[in-house]
Design a protein that fits this description.
With 298 residues, the chain is of the alpha/beta class. The protein has 2 domains: 7-132 and 284-297, Rossmann fold, CATH 3.40.50.1370; 133-282, Aspartate/ornithine carbamoyltransferase (Rossmann fold). The chain is built from 12 helices and 9 strands. It has helices spanning 12-27, 30-33, 52-63, 84-92, 108-115, 133-147, 165-176, 203-207, 234-238, 242-245, 268-271, 278-297; strands at 41-46, 67-71, 98-103, 121-127, 154-158, 181-185, 198-199, 212-215, 253-255. The strands form 2 sheets. Strands 7-6-5-8-9 form a 5-stranded parallel β-sheet. Bound molecules: aspartic acid. Aspartic acid (ASP) binds at residues 126, 132, 165-166, 217, 257-258.
Length: 298
C-alpha cells in the first residue's frame, strides 16, 4: 500500500489485517515499536483545525520511531501566496517519507499524489465533505472490538450526514465489511439525496434495536447560508438521550468521532454513560494509525 486516500481502496482482508496489527501494537511496549521505523520522517499538513487527528498521527509516528513535523499553516508561506503545489514540492525536496494531509477541498490528496509522481506516500486526514479514511478505520476497529461480526449488526447514524466525511468513510467501510444494516436519520436537508441506506422516518425508528449508534456533529462550517433547519430544536429532535438509547439493544455501543457538542447531538448522560465508547475510539485512533503507517512504510 502506497497511499491511503479513500477507504474504498481497502478490501475486507486488508482492513482485518490492520485490526490484527493494531491489536499487536496494543500489546507491544512502545520502546520496542519505536525501533521499527527509525530514521524515517513524516510531515503533517493540516489546513483545517484538529485536536484528535493531528495529535493521534503525531503520537502514532513517534511510537514507530518516525520524526514528524507539523507545518503551522498560519505561519507558513501559504499566507504569502505560495501555491499548494509549491508548498508540497518544497517539503518533498527535504526528503520526507510521508505526508499526512487535511484540507477543506474534496479530493485534493489525489491531486497532490500526482504532483509528487506518486513517489512519496500520502495519508488523507480528511478532505472537505468527502473522506476521512483513518477515522473510518478506527471506527471499524472499535466496532469490531465490541461486536466482532459485522454481518449481523444494525448501525444507526444520526446527525449532519450530508456534510460528514466521517459518515462517508464509515459507511463505505461498513459496506466493505458486509454490515447487516445501516439506518440514517437527519433532517432531509442534511441527508444525502442519493443513498442506498435506509432513511428512518424518525429518531426512535432509527435507534430501535441498533447495535451501534453513531452521533455526528452539525458541520456548521460547511452548511449553506440559506439552509432551513431549526438548530435551536436540534437536541429535542435529533439528540441522543438515555431515554432514546433504551430503544437500542441493551448492549449497544455509542460512538462519536469528536468534537462533541454536548447538549446538542448528545446528552452528557449518554456521552459519559456506560455504553459510550467515545474515549476508546480516541485510544484506538493512535493504534490504528500506527498500524496503517507501519503498513505503508514497510
Ligand atoms: N473530527 C471529524 C472531522 O474532522 C468530525 C467533526 O469535525 O465533526 O471530520
Amino acid at each position: 500500500m502506497k497511499h491511503l486516500i479513500d477507504i474504498k481502496a481497502l478490501s475486507a482482508e486488508k482492513i482485518t489485517a490492520l485490526f490484527a496489527q493494531a491489536q499487536q501494537f496494543n500489546q507491544t511496549p512502545i520502546k520496542e515499536t519505536r525501533k521499527l521505523h527509525q530514521g524515517r520522517s513524516a510531515i503533517a499538513l493540516f489546513f483545517e483545525n484538529s485536536t484528535r487527528t493531528l495529535t493521534s498521527f503525531q503520537l502514532a509516528c513517534q511510537r514507530l520511531g518516525i520524526d514528524i513535523t507539523a507545518l503551522n499553516i498560519e505561519h507558513s508561506s501559504t499566507q504569502k501566496g505560495e501555491t499548494l503545489c509549491d508548498t508540497l514540492l518544497t517539503l518533498n525536496a527535504m526528503q520526507t517519507d510521508l505526508f499526512i494531509v487535511r484540507h477543506q477541498q474534496n479530493n485534493i490528496q489525489q491531486e497532490m499524489s500526482s504532483w509528487l509522481n506518486n513517489e512519496t506516500s500520502i495519508i488523507n486526514a480528511g478532505d472537505g465533505t468527502n473522506q476521512h479514511p483513518t477515522q473510518g478505520l478506527l471506527d471499524l476497529y472499535t466496532i469490531w472490538q465490541y461486536k466482532q461480526d459485522f454481518s449481523t449488526l444494525k448501525v444507526a447514524i444520526i446527525g449532519d450526514i450530508k456534510h460528514s466525511r466521517v459518515a462517508n468513510s464509515l459507511m463505505d467501510g461498513l459496506n466493505t465489511m458486509n454490515v447487516g444494516e445501516i439506518s440514517l436519520f437527519a433532517p432531509d436537508e442534511l441527508i444525502p439525496s442519493k443513498t442506498k441506506h435506509l432513511k428512518a422516518s424518525d429518531m426512535n425508528t432509527c435507534v430501535k434495536d441498533a447495535d451501534v449508534v453513531v452521533m455526528l456533529r452539525i458541520q456548521k462550517e460547511r452548511l449553506p447560508e440559506d439552509l432551513n433547519v431549526d438548530f435551536a430544536q436540534w437536541h429535542e429532535h435529533y439528540g441522543l438521550t438515555n431515554e432514546r438509547l433504551k430503544l437500542a439493544k441493551p448492549e449497544a455501543i455509542v460512538m462519536h468521532p469528536g468534537p462533541m457538542n454536548r447538549g446538542i447531538e448528545i446528552s452528557d448522560e449518554v456521552a459519559d454513560g456506560s455504553q459510550s465508547v467515545i474515549w476508546q475510539q480516541v485510544r484506538n485512533g493512535v493504534l490504528m494509525r500506527q498500524a496503517l503507517i507501519h503498513k505503508i512504510l514497510s
